Structures are given as C-alpha cells and as structure tokens.
Fold:
Amino acid sequence: MTNSTTKPRARDLGIPLQGKTGKYNALTDIDGVTVGHETIILGEGQLELGNGPIRTGVTAILPRADQNDPVFAAWSCLNGNGEITGTTWVDESGFLSGPIMITSTHSVGVVHNAVIEWSQRSHRLNSVGNPWSLPVVAETYDGFLNDINGFHVGKEHVFKALKNASTGTVKEGNVGGGTGMICHKFKGGIGTSSRIVRLEDSDYTVAALVQANYGLREQLTISGVPVGMEITDLMPIENNPIIQCDEQGSIIVVIATDAPLLPHQLRRLAKRAPLGIAKVGGVGGNGSGDIFVSFSVANPHAMSDSEVRAVRMLPNELMTGLFQATIQAVEESILNALIAAKTMRGINGNTVYAIPHERLRKVLRNYNRLAN
Structure:
C-alpha cells in the first residue's frame, strides 16, 4: 500500500525532528512487520442509528510474516480510561501470539471474535503456543464523527485489514481504526515513524505506530512551539450535541524493535511512550486511555511447549539509546497522524478540521523552528 503523493508528512513540512529514520520511517521498517487498514466511510447528514453516517474502521499489525512464531512482548498504561484485550496473558507469558488490532471503542468485541475466527481459518490455533486465541484488540473513541452505536465494523472488515497487511509505506491519517479520530481538536488518526540506533557494533531499529485521539488544543506543542496557542480557530463544529468534543481523548501506541529484548525490557520501552506524547502536549487526562504495546522480532522460535530455548538479550546498560529512539518515534508518529489527516464531516454535520499546513509552517517560522 502507498501513500498519495499529495499527503505530506511532518518532515516534508520542515518540522525539525531528531534521529535517523528507517527506509519507510514506519513500523514496517522492522523486518517482517506488516500493517493493514480497512476504512469505512459512508453517508452524510443527520445521525440515523444503525444507518450512519459511518466514519470508522480497523487497523491490523502483524508482528511476523510467520504468525505461528510468537514474539516477546509487553504492555504499559499511563491513564486507564480505555480498553485493550489479551494483555493479561501477554503479562503472564511474555509472548504475543497473534496480531495487534486497533479499532473503535464499541467494535472491540466483534474484532476480537473475528481475529479468533481468522486464526482458526488460517490454521494458527493448533500450532506452538496457540492452542487457543486471546487476541490483543485496542480502541479509541470515534463517536463525535461516527455512528458508533450502529456497530458498523463487521468480521469482513477485520478479515480485509488482515489480508491487506503489507510491508512498505503505511497509510496515515483518516484510515483504518484512525478514521474518525481527533487529536488536539484537529483531525487525528494513524501515524507512524522509526529510528535507527547504533549500539556498540550493531544497528537496531525502533518504530512506533499510533492511533491518536487525544488532547486539548491549548496543549498542542510542536518542536517546542505552542502551536495550539497560536492556531486557536478551526475548532470542531458540533451540531445536535450527543457528546461534547471536550474530553481529553485516548491514544494507542504500538512499539516494535529488532533489538533482542526480553519482556521486562520491552515493558521498559513501552513506559517511554508517554514521554513522546508529552513532547506534543499530551498530559494523560482523566478521560484518556493511554495504552502502549511493545514487541521484539528478535529471538525467533523462542516459544516451545516442551524444549528449553536459548535466547539473546541486550544488556540493560545499552538500552538508553532505545529509550530515546522510542520517544522520538512516538513524537513523530503523532505529528505524522496530524499532518496526514484531512478535514472530515460526520454525524449531524459535525466537522473536525485538519491542521492547516501553511499556517503551521508560518508559526514554526515565527519561532525560528522551521527546518527548511
């Protein structure tokens, strides 16, 4: 899948960002990781429960090309007003045995069930470590733009997102689970980024993908500039209010690496995600679900039902560079989500505006923070 050439990213606008990126500056810079979206945009006008308008979808992240080979994984949370299934077993076992799915709040159940059916159909349930399925499904709320109680995500959409999962460029903005999302009162959604880190004599990659649906306007900070205090108009328009667009929101962050990290180290990586969010102005408000999952594609075939396995582990003393890379990748992923997203009108004509690119550049220029 490819991005349109008319959809720039943060670096294209001259936003100064630190660190060396991978080829795609995306989660797919991690060997074997694939990402797929299924986007549902239908209808205009007044909300008719069950009939739309629909502004939703689902995003699939597959950690390995061989899904029968579980990866070491961990998770963390900043503020818990959100949902992610399957993490009790990730905590207990240290392994992630299938895809990570991200969707709308009220679609978690159908996505969960669909992943189990997909696993059974693709003969993944009777392999090592997979006699059952406890899918990892995360959510953020899209009810300001979407007929969220119409339950429009079906198992066919989940199957398509999984089938669409590919390497290479990742679509960003109003796609997949990020279709109806809002970030700092601008249109938000899916964003991704990566960093290459040199440790001793080896290069490792750390990458992030976010579903950004959080934040108040006055909090928005880009490259240290109080952008939200400078661009105070273009606030969401709400007609026939159902839910006020004033909650602090939520964000899901998926972090992947090819560094040989064990589950306790991956938890340490996940705990750095909030620092990247904070650089863009997130505070983990009371209404926010800030949930982070991390995994490593190193140590293939570490899972066994009966045999002792030898695994590699990076020394803890070398992890600081990975922490920094995580923070940078999360920050840029959020910015890429904001930059890629386009203005969207949803239920009852509710409208969320895209961040205006040229005005953003002007603000950064005024603060001497524009890179080009």
Remarks:
- The chain has eight helices and 14 strands.
- The longest strand covers residues 202-214.
